[in-house]
Amino acid sequence: GRPRYLPPLLGCLLGNLTSGIMAQRLTYRRRHSYHTKSNAVRIVKTPGGKLVYQYKKKQAGHATCPLTGARLNGLPALRPTELSQKRSSKKNRNVNRIYGGHLSHQAVRERIVRAFLIEEQKIVKKVQKLQQKSASA
Questions:
Q1: How far, in Å, CA of 44 to CA of 17, rounded?
Q2: 55 sits in which H/E element
Q3: What is the pTM of this model?
């Protein structure tokens, strides 16, 4: 590339020789004027030959299970606004299962098994109490 500092006249001559014409200046089209993640742009040439900024959307992340951290299958990767009730249908936001679209299948299975085992434990305790009563009487 070109050296950082060139005397004014030499820099001018070199600049014109390398590019031929002056580059078109671009300005943001919205009021947000800082180069941040939410203000990402790409340069596009219009059919009229002008260069303009087009705003990029942030990349969407996949929904994850809050308990296991696993990615939820069957759900599209969308930004939170796209997932809103107005923008996407209910079938795009859930899976046809209990806690579908909120918890992963492992988490649901674990909950069901835990509930079953707790109920079993209660029954065992009841039976033991009855046996102790009958043994003591």
A1: 25
A2: strand 51-55
A3: 0.63
